[in-house]
Design brief:
2 copies of one chain form a homodimer. Chain A is mostly helical. The first copy, chain A, is built from 37 helices and 6 strands. The first copy, chain A, folds into 2 domains: about 5-190 and about 365-680, no CATH class; about 200-350, no CATH class. In chain A, the strands form 2 sheets. Chain A has a 4-stranded antiparallel beta sheet with strand order 2-5-1-6. Chain A has a two-stranded antiparallel sheet with strand order 3-4. The interface between A and B is large, with 45 and 45 residues.
Chain lengths: ~775, ~775
């Protein structure tokens, strides 16, 4: 059992490491040569450019103004200063609402902490149960529910508090849901024209022996939506083409690298191996090889492109159908088209940026089978992931290595190395697995066939959350692997399970406090330092960058990463709710996490991240649902714990809590969720009418014509002349030619460009000397 | 334990009583004076009328043709002869599809029975486990799984059979779901014009300080559905008016009764008491009293009617909105209208006959609270209903009666009466409760706020099914009340529960066989006799009937009673699926039930029942879902049973069964359920186009104008002149006056009238000499 002293030491270490990260960040961000690592968002918005060539050579790389170092925490107030409407304008609604999750944590837990400390801590403290008993206890346990004698009337305080906290949390959750729903509707209503407002994704177009897919779609919608249908774009299976284009790009990067290398050291032609990862195979002249590869691909790509466009087999039975009005699109997306509900499936088209193109090629039957497979696979992943890892661990022991690679024996036998391997190796397989887990979950979601990136991330997030609950939360409380737990629970009666877990909860408080400090405090502080992007940017900058455009490409702003970030926050909600009544001393640690994370992520969203898509906060129902489930878990566990405390009178009162919480959830679901899933006709009609009044001569068809072209037909900067041909072939209609710019340099289309918020760059500049 | 001899005796008794019922029916139905009891459907369709006055007086009441009695089972082939399309024409799709549930039972269980008897019975029979053991067993157990020794390899046969039965059942279920979905779509498509095809029920119209509800609705839909909105009808809270009208009608009936009485015996004016149920209170002249009452009501009704129409408070925030096209209505019903999802809720309007008017007055918030309350109430009803009954039973014992009513003592002390009371009284409270249960469940559903009678019946049916599973199925298998079971299960581990139940299953086979014979065989045979309607009709006929119209009203055709009938069938599905592998000897008994019930209900549907509404088989997803849940229950119980048999190798193979079954269910849900919940636009458009081509000058507005008027404004035959005034006031638009006939005498509007199926009456007549 950790004493208060131990905890203090641990806290000191973690606070110190967090401070180190923050100071390092403060210093690094002031160096001009790191500017593109710490302020990429402004570059992408075109509001900032590389340091000018004027001035001393050194100052272009290093900041020599010593005064700026004194104010090393200045970024914090800066990050907080931007008002929310501006933030939405600047970074999109998704990011702004994501930040509200941290705020929600503060809103729930600040009053809970205050009340718990004024009421529960004295109630727990003024007992002598632990002091009298001969169990091993720490000072922290004196403040927890463990210090109350069995059958005491004091448990009424905990029961009442459980009710108070639940009502408070529900109140805040309801307020927040209402607010986010309003923000979403307002965002959608005030947005500029966007292609997805007019467009519906139609899947499972039935094959017709006499007509092409494109004709079938056109006829169907001309018949069934005669007043509203405008145009459509068929979906091509361009996955192979996309692969080729990607390959060419990679080769181009390598070519640049080798050419730069050769330019710096002309004495020696760079060589490379052609085999796997450049580790084996024939050794060839790198520049020649890459040039030849690029030439080959330059030939293959147009051929493949030709094939995709002309081969009817590459046209998928899906199409993006656009309507004349938002009303027409809203109607089509929400209704069933055909009497066979597996044909002509319609749904809102995701934003063009948000479409996950490879999955558009998956047929319906396959999707349901895939979903089943992934469901089973995820079950096994959650409960049995330890089996392969244990197997790898059994291989990675010293005896096995010595047996398989006897030549290493003398080296391994050195005492220091041996102990290092023994201590390190068994954990490494698990560590690698945990690092790979989000990727594995994302691959699973992709396999399941979701059509939008936001959908993929939402699904991965919910899987990650479940994995965390089972393996981190329950796994830490009850020792043993998830499978052992499962086995134990199956053999236990239904009302024993909360007891088993509930009893162990107060004992694990110190463990979770340490966890919060390591993962929540130091981890969040490390996030702001962006070590990996920092290193990669400088490597790229050194090896590959020739032009300003290359430098732009070398930037890796990253994005919020909903699939990993949100489950992490949810885990803190769970801890806070579970321990609020049991061990209130844990609450301030969670408050620090929410506060710090809010500031850090607000800074990152303003200066760094560049969201790949905008889903208009479509994830909020998930966030809300998971907090509700955390509340129900905490209530059940509290009931389990209380029932072992002989508090026979107060425990039955807790029974109503989960029922009330779930009813509240159902109410919220009915009241607010439709705002996130459907598009009300009233809003659509209003926007349509306004637009018709403002721009009566708008050529909508031209606007929507190419909105949903596969990016591989759009992206290539070097084949601009081909492109128009392709469009013409694909559409066979008149085009209004527009000069497309490389998307990387232009502000993201859905955002208002810099003009509308002139204070932003000034504000940002003022913050930096 | 019952021996084969016992079973045979029981079977003989039940077969005999079933035969008695059938013979009694055969005799009674041939008597002309029972014609209106056994053939009311034909009277309602106007295809049959009272026996003519010609002929001998006796033959008008009694059938003297002895030959007709010889063919007393002739009604059976007659009932089977009508082909399904004609049946749909004659009685509606609901009835035709309801019959398919029995057919489905036959389709599933005939092959299952054959295979089980050829494979499982020999496998079970050729063992000597029970003979060697010293447990008490019956011959039936020799054919069951109990006869297999522990750990035998023969359990593989049961495992394989469980798979075979599951696959067969799923195959048949899928075929049936597809067929019913097709039938539904075809029925809807081929139907004549019906008001509900064009109409949407709008609830939660937001209040507007400047406009009446009617104006708000009109403006909203003129703005948001400008091309499609046609007209609307507001909903009045006419519950009080309906009550008054009902009261007047009851008084009228009594007046008729007393007048008839007085006419027969003029020596004495009939008297009545004014108090509760005519049991207490002042004694007055009955004819004068009733006349006065009717006069009072005749004054009050127009006043109340005036109030309902003119008082804005009696207008509910709901309206039936009609559209110009089916397309427009389909769009409006499936989309969200307002950004606040609790306002302007739209759903398909039920058929006018199907609307449950009193519930239209319930606001949205109240509905969710009501749902929660009823959920909790149903939980308590299911698990704790024994508590009040036990309390009543404790009161209804002899000592208590003697104490409270000492004057009864001499009577009670007679030995015969005492033993009768002792044997009979304790059971009577339970029996009364079970008889009242469907009514209680229906009241619960009504309280929940469903808006259509079909919805009420579906909800009651699913509750009744759950009650049956918990209290009849589990209650019979495990002795003890549901609450004791619940308590036991909570204290048992999750995988112990199927074991506890599974082990008891083979032992209860004889009990359930007896149950099937009593409830399924004799009960169904009694259904056809219609004892209660028979008695009531003759009583009414004797005491109140003066005119032919009165005689029409005295008929009580009844209807299918989905809320009680369907759960009964489902219970047999459950028994069949559970015992198919365990004790196959039970299967033939179930086959007889399905066969007999099919014939009986086909006869009743053709000749007797008059459906109150037509939901176009909207109940099928419920039927399908309950059979699936019965399959999953049977699989879990089989797993529990097998795991106690030391069949360690074969049991794990059963694990995949519930997963496969549930996946199958999800697939079916996705594939077929939308056909029952939504209305595809393609179909709507097709019908619209056809109609426009056929009847270009149709005045749809006139057709829809008064379709959804509260029946209380329509029903009164005697206030025809008032009515038109009311319509004018309510609608304030031009009306096309149509002469409405009393609905009782006309064929139900949605059905094709007799002309289209001229063979029906002939066919029916041929069957009767």
């Amino acid at each position: 059992m950790a004493t208060l002293g131990d905890m203090g030491l641990s806290a000191a270490i973690n606070i110190l490491s967090a401070l180190v990260f923050l100071v390092a960040f403060a210093i690094l961000r002031l160096q001009p040569f790191n500017d593109r690592v710490y302020f990429p968002k402004w570059y992408l918005k075109g509001l900032r450019s590389s340091p000018t060539r004027s001035g001393a050579f050194v100052t272009r790389f290093v900041n020599l103004d010593w005064r700026s170092y004194l104010r090393f925490l200045n970024w914090m107030p800066d990050a907080l200063r931007m008002p929310e409407p501006e933030l939405i304008d600047h970074a999109g609604l998704d990011s702004a609402v994501y930040l509200r999750i941290y705020l929600l944590g503060l809103k729930i837990f600040v009053p809970v902490t205050l009340i718990a400390w004024t009421i529960l801590v004295p109630v727990n403290w003024t007992n002598h149960t632990l002091a009298k008993s001969d169990v091993n206890y720490s000072e922290i346990d004196l403040l927890s529910i463990s210090n109350i004698p069995l059958g005491s009337q004091r448990f009424w305080a905990h029961t009442v508090m459980a009710y108070a906290f639940t009502f408070w949390a529900c109140y805040i959750l309801q307020q927040e849901y209402a607010k986010v729903a309003r923000m979403r509707l307002h965002f959608i209503a005030s947005e500029k024209r966007r292609p997805d407002q007019f467009t519906v994704l139609v899947k499972n177009v039935p094959p017709d022996p006499d007509e092409s897919i494109s004709e079938t779609v056109e006829h169907f919608f001309l018949v069934n939506h005669p007043d509203h249908y405008l145009t459509h774009q068929v979906v091509c299976n361009a996955n192979k083409l996309a692969k080729l284009v990607k390959e060419k790009k990679r080769n181009q990067n390598w070519l640049d690298y080798y050419q730069l290398k050769y330019a710096r050291n002309q004495s020696q032609r760079p060589m490379m191996k052609t085999g796997f990862l450049g580790l084996c195979g024939e050794k060839v002249d790198a520049i020649d090889h890459q040039t030849a590869e690029i030439e080959r691909l330059s030939k293959e790509i147009p051929e493949e492109r030709e094939r995709v466009i002309n081969d009817p087999k590459s046209i998928m039975p899906a199409a993006f159908v656009s309507f004349k009005t938002r009303w027409g699109a809203a109607v089509c997306a929400q209704t069933q088209q055909s009497s066979n509900p597996t044909l002509w499936l319609t749904e809102w088209a995701p934003e063009p940026r948000d479409v996950y193109w490879p999955n558009l090629a998956i047929p319906y039957v396959s999707v349901s089978i895939r979903r089943l497979i992934i469901g089973v696979a995820f079950f096994f992943l959650t409960f049995f992931f330890m089996i392969p890892i244990a197997f790898v661990q059994s291989l990675a022991n010293i005896e096995y290595i010595e047996k398989k690679a006897p030549f290493l024996k003398p080296l391994i036998e050195i005492k220091f190395i041996k102990s290092f391997i023994q201590g390190f190796l068994p954990g490494i397989a698990l560590k690698i697995f945990l690092i790979l887990l989000p990727t594995i979950l994302m691959i699973m979601s992709k396999f399941e066939g979701f059509l939008s990136i936001s959908g993929l991330e939402r699904r991965s997030a919910s899987r990650y959350y479940i994995f965390n609950i089972v393996n981190v939360f329950l796994g830490s409380i009850i020792a043993g692997t998830a499978f052992q737990q499962l086995n134990k629970f199956i053999h236990q009666s239904a009302n024993e399970i909360p007891k088993t877990i509930g009893v162990a909860i107060p004992m694990k408080a110190t463990f979770f406090i340490t966890y919060i400090m390591v993962d929540g405090w130091a981890g969040i502080a490390a996030e702001i330092l962006r070590v990996r992007p920092l290193i990669i940017f400088h490597l790229k900058n050194f090896f590959m960058v020739k032009t300003e455009k290359d430098r732009d490409e070398a930037m890796d702003p990253g994005s919020l990463g909903f699939d990993t970030g949100e489950p992490q926050i949810q885990f803190y909600f769970l801890l806070g709710l579970v321990y609020a009544v049991v061990t209130p001393i844990l609450l301030p640690f969670i408050l620090v996490f929410f506060g710090l994370a809010y500031v850090v992520f607000r800074h990152q969203i303003i200066n760094v991240y560049n969201q790949e898509y905008e889903s208009a906060a479509a994830f909020w129902p998930d966030v809300h649902g998971r907090i509700i489930s955390a509340m129900v878990i905490s209530q059940l566990l509290l009931m389990g714990l209380m029932s072992t405390k002989h508090a026979a009178l107060s425990t039955p009162f807790l029974l109503a809590l989960p029922i009330l919480t779930i009813s509240f959830h159902l109410y919220c679901k009915g009241r607010y969720e439709p705002a996130f899933r459907r598009y009300p006709l009233q809003e659509a009609m209003m926007k349509d009418t306004l637009e018709r009044a403002k721009e009566p001569n708008l050529n909508l068809k031209a606007y929507l014509q190419n909105a949903y072209i596969h990016p591989v037909f759009k992206g290539g900067d070097d084949d601009d002349e081909d492109e128009d041909e392709i469009f013409e072939k694909l559409e066979a209609t008149v085009l209004v030619p527009t000069k497309r710019q490389s998307r990387r340099n232009t502000p993201v289309p859905s955002k208002v460009s810099g003009d509308s918020s002139p204070s932003l760059p000034d504000l940002q500049e003022k913050g930096r000397p």
